[in-house]
Amino acid sequence: RAMSSCTLPLGSLHRTNITTVEGVGTSKNPHSIQSRLVECHAVQCGYDTPGLVMAVYALLVQKENVDIQEIINHCDGIISRCNGYRAVVEAVKSFTGNNSDDRKSWRRRFLTI
Questions:
Q1: What is the C-alpha separation between 76 and 68, in angstroms, rounded?
Q2: What is the rounded distance in angstroms from the CA atom of residue 83 to the CA atom of residue 33?
C-alpha cells in the first residue's frame, strides 16, 4: 500500500519491503506509468510526480480491476502547484480495467517480494 514517508516512524518499517519511485523506474528505464505521464504532458515541475507515480503504481498492483474514479480517489491528497489534473487523468486512463499485460507482470513482481 502507498504511504507517505513523511508521516511514518522509521521503526514501524522494520521487516517490511519498501519500494520508492526510484525502484519503480528511472530516467533511463522508466516504468510505463512514468512514460505515460510524460507522453500525455502530465509532468511539469516534478514536485508532485513521484507521489502520483507511487499512488497509481500501488493501486494498480493491489487491485486487479480498477476504474478511473478509483484512480482519481486514490490520488486524493497529492497536490500539484502547476499541473492541471486533466492530463494526469488522461494518462492513467489506459491502465483501467484488467486487460493490461504490464499490470499482470507488476502484480506478479510486487506480490512475490
A1: 13
A2: 17
In this predicted structure, the answer to whether residue 57 has a pLDDT above a threshold of 80 is yes
The one-letter amino acid at 86: R
Task: Note the residue count of the chain.
Answer: 113
Confidence of residue 113 (pLDDT cuts 50, 70, 90): very low
Residue 51 backbone zone (phi > 0: left; psi -120 to 50: alpha; other: beta): alpha
Answer yes or no: are the C-beta atoms of 24 and 53 closer than 8 Å. Answer: yes
Distance of CA 106 to the CA centre of its chain: 12
76-87 tens-digit pLDDT: 777 777 766 778
Residue 32 Cα distances to 5, 7, 81, angstroms: 23, 28, 24
